[in-house]
């Protein structure tokens, strides 16, 4: 078998033996491990795209592999491998994960399959010998999710994941990120909108900056009636945070590794928005009692409105906040602030 010598890190020679990845031959003190990351739902233009591009920007150090129900997708760059999976088939999932180190789910599935498919994925990851797993969280803390009926699916999934961690089957973390900052891109100049939304296509929530009469609904704190605070993170920064978490040598250990683009009081967020949209914003404060009354009138089958009302109630209890542990562990990630977001996407044409 032919071997050749190349120039390794820190000027050390590296022996390249074709069947073995060069990383195995690097000096032991090499800080980062090369990792294959499977992203369930990685075809999505939001978190999928964010994570895939953050992993690709490691210049081959990490390799993203998309798990999808479809075998191809014209939107996805041809240099990213797509593995077609059947989330109901253990064999299909195990086969797709055999050479994978880390599995990140960014799935969003309406209905009970959101739980079963992710638990199937978890158990397949365990059998395939994957090292780490993260379920599709990307919202708030568990305490907040307990207040929102539709988010109970995330709690049930997380319970199963944590139980696997406790039994030593896999390492795992959940990643809260607060509200996508991209909600603030709704209504920005058309020339900037695509980048501002980062694939996000939902309607406005709390911040209604579009149109001539912008307004913001502000949950007032239950205890003192003051404006509550919230965390916002740009979708594009979430992939960077997860990539940095993958690089952590310390185990994730079933922890909540929260990330924050910015933690801010509604008053300050509104002031920044006013500065960049160039219009006065009408503030619509709401108390927990008013939201609870409204909730009685929202039909339960209006899932979005029901969820938003319950989320706002959680906001009155300051549950839009959580520990931004990942910011502390990975200070090299410099997420976009709200000022930077508004300046980038609301100014110029
Ligand atoms: N913090 C926030 O403000 C915020 C806002 C919105 C969403 N989120 C969270 O972000 C995460 C991703 O949400 P998203 O809106 O980006 O997701 P999405 O684009 O709606 O879906 C992600 C992927 O899930 C897969 N999928 C969809 N339906 C499926 C089904 N029936 N069976 C199997 N796979 C299915 C699809 O992949 P394939 O078609 O390739 O299989 C899709 O690309 C979720 O956890 C969501 O709760 C957070």
Report on the structure:
With 349 residues, the protein is α/β, with parallel strands linked by helices. The protein has two domains: 13-178 and 235-256, NAD(P)-binding Rossmann-like Domain (Rossmann fold), CATH 3.40.50; 179-232 and 262-346, UDP-galactose 4-epimerase, domain 1 (Alpha-Beta Complex). Helices cover 36% and strands 17% of the residues. The protein has twelve helices and 15 strands. It has helices at residues 47-56, 90-97, 113-128, 142-145, 152-166, 190-197, 235-247, 266-277, 288-297, 303-316, 325-329, 338-346; strands at 4-7, 13-16, 35-40, 62-68, 81-84, 102-105, 132-134, 171-174, 179-180, 207-208, 215-219, 229-233, 255-256, 262-265, 282-286. Strands 5-4-3-6-7-8-13 form a seven-stranded parallel β-sheet, sandwiched between helices. α3 packs parallel to α5 (152-166) and α9 (288-297) runs antiparallel to α10 (303-316). It is globular, with a radius of gyration of 22 Å. The model is unreliable at 1-30 (pLDDT under 50). The structure holds NADP nicotinamide-adenine-dinucleotide phosphate (NAP). InterPro entries: NAD(P)-bd_dom_sf, NmrA-like, NmrA/Isoflavone_reductase-like, PCBER-like. GO terms for molecular function: oxidoreductase activity. This is Isoflavone reductase family protein. Residues 42-341 form the NmrA-like domain. Keywords: NADP, Oxidoreductase.
């Amino acid at each position: 078998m032919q071997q050749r010598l190349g120039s390794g890190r820190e000027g050390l020679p590296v022996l390249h033996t074709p069947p073995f990845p060069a990383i195995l031959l690097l000096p032991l003190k090499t800080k980062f491990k090369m990792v294959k990351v499977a992203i369930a739902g990685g075809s999505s233009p939001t978190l999928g795209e964010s994570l895939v591009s953050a992993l690709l920007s490691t210049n081959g150090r990490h390799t993203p592999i998309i798990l999808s129900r479809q075998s191809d997708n014209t939107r996805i760059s041809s240099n990213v491998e797509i593995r077609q999976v059947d989330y109901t088939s253990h064999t299909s999932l195990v086969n797709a994960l055999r050479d994978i180190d880390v599995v990140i789910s960014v799935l969003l599935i309406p209905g009970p399959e959101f739980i079963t498919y992710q638990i199937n994925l978890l158990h397949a990851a365990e059998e395939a010998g994957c090292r780490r797993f993260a379920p599709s969280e990307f919202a708030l803390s568990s305490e907040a999710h307990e207040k929102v009926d539709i988010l109970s699916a995330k709690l049930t999934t997380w319970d199963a994941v944590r139980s696997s961690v406790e039994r030593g089957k896999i390492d795992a973390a959940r990643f809260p990120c607060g509200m996508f900052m991209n909600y603030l891109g709704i209504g920005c100049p058309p020339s900037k909108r695509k980048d501002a939304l980062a694939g996000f296509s939902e309607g406005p929530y709390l911040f209604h900056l579009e149109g001539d009469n912008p307004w913001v609904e502000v949950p007032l704190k239950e205890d003192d009636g003051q404006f509550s605070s919230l965390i916002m993170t740009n979708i594009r920064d979430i992939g960077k945070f997860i990539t940095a978490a993958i690089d952590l040598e310390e185990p994730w250990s079933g922890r909540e590794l929260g990330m924050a683009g910015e933690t801010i009081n509604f008053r300050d967020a509104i002031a920044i928005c006013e500065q960049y949209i160039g219009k006065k914003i009408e503030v619509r404060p709401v108390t927990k009692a008013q939201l609870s009354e409204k909730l009685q009138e929202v039909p339960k089958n209006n899932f979005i409105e029901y969820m938003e009302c319950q989320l706002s109630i959680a906001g009155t209890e300051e549950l839009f906040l959580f520990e931004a542990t990942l910011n502390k562990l990975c200070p090299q990630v410099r997420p976009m602030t709200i000022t930077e977001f508004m300046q980038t996407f609301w100014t110029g044409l």
